[in-house]
């Protein structure tokens, strides 16, 4: 049951909000977490997309691994529909955000947020992106204790190596890159991906000759069966907290509920931040107003502190719609790791000679399990996908149009652009001999890029987010350098054909729209509203150098929880 007042209200139960809620609850504070999407794997909502279910959950006993197995399938389209940002009742349509060109914003709604479909990648930020780019008001060393805490909670470990990672490592080594063995990356090089996924059962080792079931308890830990993008809660049959991928719903949410100080209310879209201005100067946050996404009813709840953790699109949208004080950086400085995709295709005989079998089999192993770090430029990482998602990411859209429109004569790739029809079918017929490399650039915050709202473009929760993103010339050069590096690695690994997508801007990683040092101070409390904090990726001062941002977002959210207690309780 939701009370009328709490010590703290956290807006959003995605990747970061549960971390702050856990920290506040550990300090003995009463915490209400309001989440716009559904709560999967909870006995209060046995049919989360078909009926309203219960009101709130305050007990770890509500969590059910069996329900999670029922509600998550490995069917990609079905799970994209279930998880993409929108209400639990999909008959009402998705929540619209306007994004430029052919790109899209890839975020999920629900307890766990976008970590429900992320691939578990949990590297730290590049130290130089915090200490040398001049965007951050704190030092990298300030985050290190929180990284350690998050990595222990999420059981972060180097990803196991299968054929696709071995192929990438061979190519990187042949291209002259060194193996990295430190979590704090200061020099370029390659390494296994540090993933928040439990290690696979030892019996699954290639020498184990295992021939049994891949369900719990026959197999514990990672089943190496791909599917993390679709949210696959493997191993099937495992209790809720024994699932291999340590998404925030499996790691921080149970820890928060176990304190007995946290209540989570899903299907609650926050539409206003309530304030008082008793002295006539800086307003003070006093609570929020939210809308039940099933009934449409609105409610208010009071709090000593309000924490915004709705993500780098919805947090600035809420600020702007709540008519809080103007700040030229609210919603501004968006970074998305301006990305691209480079694909390699091998001849079977060449693969046999290199890795001892005629196929890459990208569907085996963890989705993203090998990376090349390049501080100051960005990173590369292998991506294992099923054919459908692979076709969309690698060949479905291009800023350069169709492949036949481009002349690659002087380029390090054989083809570039969108593929369709017989050309796409021919390439995908060799799916098992193909490997995709994702280019993730260190794009920098620019005030022209960000989130705004406009009267007249509204949904049931007020004016919708209008997103603008245009990379700078420097951003484009860094992405081009990374694409060329990817092509070289694939060639050195023996690829006979290399294809570059030249993907349009797509928001895979979204951050820095409520930047630390611009909108919030070094404790992530708003400069312009007392007792209003931000604890999600929007508070990151930049794109952390191109490294996957989940670890840094959670580390900063943990630090913010402690700062809230120090300042106000």
Task: Write up this protein.
The protein is α/β, with parallel strands linked by helices and 569 residues long. It is built from 13 helices and 20 strands. The strands form five sheets. Strands 1, 2, 6, 7, 8, 9 and 20 form a seven-stranded mixed sheet that branches. Strand 16 (458-459) and strand 17 (462-463) form a beta hairpin. Helix 5 (140-153) packs across helix 13 and helix 6 packs across helix 12. The longest helix has 20 residues, at 473-492. The mean pLDDT is 93.
Overall average residue pLDDT: 93
Instruction: Write down the overall geometry.
Output: globular
Share in β-strands: 15-25%
Give the biggest beta sheet: 7 strands, mixed
Number of strands: 20
> Uncertain runs with pLDDT below 50, 5 residues or more?
none
Oligomer: single chain
Report the total helices. Answer: 13
Round the Cα radius of gyration to an integer and report it: 23 Å
Helix content: 10-25%
N-to-C CA distance:
24 Å
Question: Which structural class do the helices and strands define?
Answer: alpha/beta
Short description:
With 569 residues, the protein is of the alpha/beta class.
Task: Looking at this protein, list some descriptive labels.
569 residues, alpha/beta, seven-stranded mixed beta sheet, 13 helices, 20 strands, 24% helix, 17% strand
Layout: helices, strands, pairs:
Elements lengths: L4 E7 L5 H10 L4 E4 L30 H7 L4 H8 L43 H5 L8 H14 L3 E2 L4 H12 L14 E4 L1 E2 L56 H7 L3 E4 L2 E9 L7 E9 L5 E11 L2 H11 L17 E7 L2 H8 L14 E5 L3 E6 L3 H9 L19 E2 L4 H8 L5 E8 L8 E3 L5 E2 L2 E2 L2 E3 L4 H20 L4 E4 L31 E3 L15 H19 L1
Parallel strand pairs: 1-2, 1-9, 2-6, 9-20, 13-19
Antiparallel strand pairs: 3-5, 4-11, 7-8, 8-9, 10-14, 10-19, 11-12, 12-14, 15-18, 16-17
């Amino acid at each position: 049951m939701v009370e009328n007042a709490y010590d703290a209200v956290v807006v959003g139960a995605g990747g970061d909000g549960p971390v702050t809620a856990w920290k506040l609850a550990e300090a003995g504070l009463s915490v209400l977490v309001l989440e716009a999407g559904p709560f999967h794997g909870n006995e209060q909502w046995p049919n989360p997309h078909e009926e309203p279910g219960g009101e709130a959950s305050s007990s770890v006993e509500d969590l059910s691994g069996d329900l999670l197995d029922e509600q998550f399938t490995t069917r990609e389209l079905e799970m994209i529909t279930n998880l993409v940002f929108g209400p639990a009742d999909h008959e009402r349509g998705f929540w619209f955000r306007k994004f430029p060109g052919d790109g899209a914003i890839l975020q999920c709604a629900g307890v766990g947020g976008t970590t429900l479909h992320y691939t578990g990648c949990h590297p730290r930020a590049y130290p130089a992106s915090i200490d040398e780019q001049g965007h951050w008001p704190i030092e990298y060393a300030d985050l290190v204790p929180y990284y350690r805490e998050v990595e222990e909670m999420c059981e972060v470990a180097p990803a196991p190596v299968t054929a696709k990672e071995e192929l990438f490592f061979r190519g990187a080594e042949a291209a002259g890159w060194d193996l990295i063995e430190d979590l704090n990356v200061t020099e370029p090089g390659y390494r296994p991906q540090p993933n928040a996924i439990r290690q696979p059962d030892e019996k699954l080792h290639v020498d184990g000759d295992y021939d049994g079931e891949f369900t719990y308890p026959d197999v514990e830990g990672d089943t190496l069966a791909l599917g993390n993008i679709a949210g696959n809660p493997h191993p099937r049959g495992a209790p809720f907290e024994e699932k291999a991928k340590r998404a925030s719903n499996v790691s921080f949410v149970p820890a928060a509920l176990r304190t007995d100080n946290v209540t989570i209310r899903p299907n609650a879209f926050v539409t206003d931040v309530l304030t008082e201005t008793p002295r006539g100067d800086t307003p003070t946050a006093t609570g929020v107003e939210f809308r039940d996404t099933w009934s449409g009813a609105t409610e208010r709840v009071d709090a000593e502190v309000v924490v915004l953790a709705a993500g780098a699109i919805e947090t600035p949208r809420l600020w702007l719609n709540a008519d809080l004080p103007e700040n030229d950086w609210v919603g501004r400085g968006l970074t998305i790791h301006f990305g691209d995709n480079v694909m390699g295709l091998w001849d079977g005989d060449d693969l046999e000679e290199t890795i001892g079998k005629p196929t890459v089999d990208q569907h085996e192993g963890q989705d993203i399990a090998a990376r090349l770090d390049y501080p100051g430029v960005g990173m590369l990482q292998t991506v294992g996908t099923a054919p459908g998602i692979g076709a969309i990411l690698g060949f479905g859209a291009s800023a350069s149009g169709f492949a036949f429109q481009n002349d690659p004569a002087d380029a390090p790739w054989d083809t570039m652009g969108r593929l369709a029809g017989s050309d796409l079918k021919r390439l995908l017929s060799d799916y098992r001999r193909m490997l995709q490399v994702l280019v993730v650039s260190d794009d920098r915050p620019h005030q022209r890029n960000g989130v705004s709202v406009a009267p007249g473009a509204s949904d049931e929760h007020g004016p919708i987010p209008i997103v603008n993103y245009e990379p700078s010339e420097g951003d484009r050069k860094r992405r081009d350098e990374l694409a060329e590096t990817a092509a070289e690695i694939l060639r050195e690994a023996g690829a006979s054909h290399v294809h570059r997508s030249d993907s349009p801007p797509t928001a895979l990683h979204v951050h820095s729209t409520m930047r630390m040092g611009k909108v919030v101070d070094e404790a992530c409390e708003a400069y312009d509203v007392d007792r209003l904090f931000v604890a999600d990726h929007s508070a990151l001062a930049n794109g952390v150098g191109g490294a996957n941002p989940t670890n840094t977002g959670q580390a900063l959210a943990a630090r913010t929880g402690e700062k809230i207690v120090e300042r106000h309780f």
